[in-house]
Amino acid sequence: MDSREWKYKLANPYVLGICYWLIWLFLLSSFQPFGNAAWAASVNVAAQGITAFATICFLIPHYLEKRKYLAYAAQVAILIFLLTVLYMKLTEPGLHLLAGKREIRYPRAFQFGRMYFFLFVIHIVSTAYKFASDRFYALQRQSELHRKQLETELQVLKNQINPHFLFNTLNNVYTLAYLKDDNAAPMIMKLSELLRYTLYDCQADRVKLEKEVEFLRNIIAMQQLKSDVYQKRVSLETSGVQPNHFIAPLLLLVFIENSFKFSDLDTNPDGHIHISLRVDMSGTLHFECGNTTKQPLNEEPKAGIGLANVRKRLQLIYPENYELQVAEMEGEFLVSLKIFHL
Fold first, then answer.
1. Which helix (H) or strand (E) holds 159?
2. Is the pTM for the entire model greater than 0.90?
3. Tell me, which fold does domain 181-339 have in CATH?
4. N or C: which end of the chain has fewer CB within 10 A?
5. Where in the chain is the domain with CATH 3.30.565.10?
6. How many CB atoms lie within 10 A of CB 219?
7. Backbone angles phi, psi at 265, to 5 degrees
8. Of 176, 174, 177, 169, nearest in space to 197 by CA
9. DSSP-assigned beta bridge partners for residue 286
């Protein structure tokens, strides 16, 4: 908070106090001389201010919140009594109102009771304000803590993705290098591009969908370098992606990784992996990833982050704004994800 904000916060109560004093001055000057009205308004506003300040800053924190109810009630009664006595001594005795041409005088006892009751009302209002403001700030702090907790949890989930992805990719590079395959060098170049994206572009909460699609294309292209079989049987179709579409980074990576991990491309002549991503006119993302399988996908390795990670991220980032369906049919696995209003 800069100095100008502090000055504004400090000046604001004074401005409100002056305005409140002017209201009292206007009311009192309508039936008594201006000098008397100014003095009476000043004493009245001061008594109310002391009541409110003592209630909020002293009585509630030191007595009411500590459940010292009898002491609290006694302190309130004494405070209001002393302020009322002081007010009566500082103002003219027998203040009167003018009703037409007739002068109406109120007894001192009536004035005392009226002022005592008025200050008690100020005390009640101050108490309500104190509890309301404390409740508001408590909810604000709770919301801030919850937001930070969600940010931390999301960061933990995202940090789980990067090492996992890097570990699998390095295994593929190692295999090609060990076999002295010519595709080892292009795969290392693709890996460099992917790492640049994950280390720098993915730090934001949202990334452009265009960049995420390019990242997925590089993932698939790197897998296709393994063999001609992967080149022919793996496909990615995209449509409707616009520059103003954003998505949480690396959200779709697990689906694609699982499709390669559990696919049977190496053993099944009819094996395939088909991935489609489109955005309709309403801005809804439709993502589908289907592959033939060599084993049920629900038997994930213990080291895998799996679908549970994705579900958790979706719930944290897009609560009530997505639909995820996972279907395992005979020899095929399909993931369908909708994210509304990108």
1. helix 108-178
2. no
3. Heat Shock Protein 90 (3.30.565)
4. N
5. 181-339
6. 21
7. -60, -30
8. 169
9. 278, 338
